[in-house]
Specification:
The protein is built from 25 helices and 24 strands. It is of the alpha+beta class and about 800 residues long. It folds into 3 domains: about 350 residues, no CATH class; about 220 residues, no CATH class; about 180 residues, no CATH class.
Amino acid sequence: MFKSYLKTAWRNILRNKITSLISMTGLAVGIGCFLLLATYILNELSYDRFNSNADRIVRLVKHERSAVNNTDKITAVTPTAPVPVLKQAIPDITDGVRVFNYSGYAPAAVQYKDKLFNERRMLMADAPFFNIFSFKFLEGNPGTALSQVNAVVITSSIAKKYFGDEDPMGKILKVNTNKDMLVTGVIADAPESSHLKFDLLGNYAMLDRSKTRKWDSSNDYSYFLLKSGISPRIVEHQINTYTSGLINDAGSKIKSTFELEPLLRIHLHSQAENNLEPGGNIKYVYILSVVAVILLLLACVNFLNLVTAKSIDRAHEIGVRKVMGALRGQLFVQFISEAGIITLISLMVGVLFAVLSFPLFSKFCGHSLSLDTWNIALLIPGLIALFVLVTFLAGTYPSLYLAAFKPVATLKGKLGEKSGGKNMRRSLVVFQFAVSVFFIISTIIAGLQLQYIQNTDTGINRSQVVVLDVGGIPFANVKAFGNSLLQHTAVKNFTASYSSPVAVRGGYSIDQAEGISGKVDMLVTAIPVERNFINTLGIKLIAGSNFTLGDEQRVLDTIPSEQQYSFILNESAVKMLGWKPEQAIGKHIDMNGRAGEIRGVAKDFNFESLHTGISPIVIFPEYNYFGKMLIKTTGNDMAGTMATIKSNWHNFYPNKPFEAHFLDQEYEDMYQTEQHTSGILTAFTLVTIFISCLGLFGLAIFSTKQRVREIGIRKVLGASVTGIVGLISWDFLKLVVISLFIASPLAYYVMGKWLQDFVYHIHIQWWVFVLSALLAMGIAFVTISFQSIKAAIANPVKSLRSE
C-alpha cells in the first residue's frame, strides 16, 4: 500500500510541475541556508571542545579597578609569576602553562636553507602545554616534545611549506636570525574551533622572561588544569586570597584581582582585552540562530501556502477518493507522502547547495567552514531529523486540511474560497514579507553603521599611512631606514610606536601628579612612541607643544636612572586629574616609574574600537622597543612608492621578508565580527526575499487562474489593462503594506539594541523605513506583474469560451 501512496504522490507532483518546482526550490534554498548557518553556529559553539580536558581547563585573567576614575580593566594577559607559583601553592591546580605570543607585535622571520617567510602565528609555551591541550600529533611525542629548551613543534602546513617531502623531525629552523630551533614534533593544523591557533610552538624556557617571576608587566597567557570536579570559583577565591598581598600595595587606590575563565566560555563570553584572536559574540550566535530558524520556517510556509492554494483544484479528486471509500487517515498519509518526496528531493538539493556555497559563505563569516565541521555521527541523524521536521512542519497542516474536505460538497462544486484557506494564505504572505522587510531594514542600518565606522573622524589621520612590522629591530636601524625613505618625495614623514595607534592596549597608571597630594593611582592607557608620532598621524594638540629632539635625547642618550620623560595627555586624562588643558602644561607626573613633565594636551581621539568610549591615554617617547613603523605618504603613485619602500627595506634588512599594509586596514580589521555579520545578513536578506517572491509568484499564478472568468467579464465590460493589473496586484500589495507596519517597529527596536553596543553610532532615520517600503513594494509588484499583465492582456472571448 505504501508503494501505491508513493506512486500516486509522484504522479501528483509531476501533474503540478510549476507548483512542485516552486515548492522544491524554496525548500531547497531554505534548507541549504539553514545548513550553512547551522554549521557556522556549531563551529562557534564547539570552540575548544576538542580538548579532552576542556571542562577542567581555565584561563587566568587580571581585573584592575581604580577607585579614582571608577575604571575597570580586564586583560587576558598576566605576569610571569602566577603559573609557576600558583600551581605549587594551590592544591586544586593539577598543572599550569604560560603562553607567550612571540609574533604578537611583529611576525617572526623563519628561515630554512633558502626559504624565508614571515610567520604571524608563533607561540612559546611551557613544556606541559601538550599535557593540558589535545592537539593531534603526527610525529613526535606530546609528552616530551617541548622538553628541550630550543624545541619547536610545527603544524603539517608549516612542515610542507619549509621542508616539502623531507622529514622535518630533527631539522633546524632559524628564527629572527638569532635563534636556532629544533623541530621535535609535527601536529595537524590547529582546529578552526580553537582560540589557540598557531603554526609554530616553541619552548617558553628559550625566552629571557622565563627566568623571572614577576607579578607586574603582564604579557603572558596563563592556563591551569584543575582537579576533576573542582569549581573554578573555589580555586579563584584561593588564588586571590594567596595573591592579594603580592599584587596590591598597601594604601593603593587600584585594586587588582585574578579571575578564572572556563576554557569553553573564552571564545563567546570573555570580556577580557588583549586576546590572542578576536573573540566571538554570543549575541550574534543568538541572532543567527533565529535567522536560521526563520529561513527554514519561510521555506515551510512557502510550501504550505502553495499546497493550500492548490486545494480547490484537488477538491474533486479528494471527493471521488472519499466516495470510493478512502479514509481520512489514508488521505492524510497520501498527502504527507507527497510532502515527504518534495522534502527529500529538496533536502538533497539543499545539501548540495550548501556544499557548493561553503567557500563563498566562509568568506562572509571569516571562518573556514565545510560539512567536515560536523561530526559524521551528528550530521546523519541531524539530516534525518531535519527531513522529518520539515516534512511534518510543511506537510501536516495541508494534509489535515485537504483530508477534511466533505465529499458531497466537493463533488457538487460547492467548495468556496472560504474553505480554500484564503485568510490562511494571506496571513502566511504577510509573515513572509514581514520577515523580508525586517531583514531589509536591518541590512540597511547595519550597512550605514559600518559606513559610519569607516568614515567617522577618529582624530587620527589614517589615510595613506603604510605600516611595517619592525618588532625586534633596534631604533637606530629603524631611524636610518626611515631617513632613507625621506629622500623620496612621495614619503612625507615616518614614526614608530609600540603597538598599533588604532588599537592601543598598554595598561599603565599615573601614580603621582604635581599639585595632588598622596598617591593618584589613576588607570590609563599609554603608548611608547617615536617623537614624530603626533605629526605623522595628524593628532591635534589643544595646549602645549609636540615632542622635540631634546625629549628624545633625554630618554635615548641617558642612563635609565637619570631619564626624564615628556608626556602628552589627552583631554580625558587631564580632566580626570582635575586640570584644564592650559594648567596641565609643565606639570610633573610619575607613570609606572617614569618621571617627567607634561609637554602637551591632545584633543580626544579614538585609540580603541568605537564599541568603547574615549578613556585617558598618555603618549610618551621611549625607544626600548617598537612594534610598528608608520610611514606617511603623499598618496601619489602608490605602486611606485611601495616599490621604493620595499627596495630600501631589502637593502637594510636582507634577512627579513618585506610585508606592508595600510593603517586603514588595521582599523577595519577591528570590526571583522560586524563586517561578517553584516555580510551574512545581506546574503540572507536576499535569500528571504527570493523565497518570499517564489511563494508570491506561485500564488499569483493560482490567483489569476481562479479569476480567468472574472477578468474576461471585466474586459468585455470595458475594463482597461492597467485597471485589471492594478486590481490583481493590489490584492497582494496590500498584504505587503500590512507586513511593513508589522516589521518596521520590530526592526527599529532590535537594531536600536544592536547599535547600543557601539558608544559611537548612527541614529536611525525615517528614510530607512521609506526606502525599505519602496523596495519591498517594488519587489512584490515585479514578482506578480508578469502574471497579472498576462491575465490582463488575454483574449476575453477565449477565456469565457473555455469557462
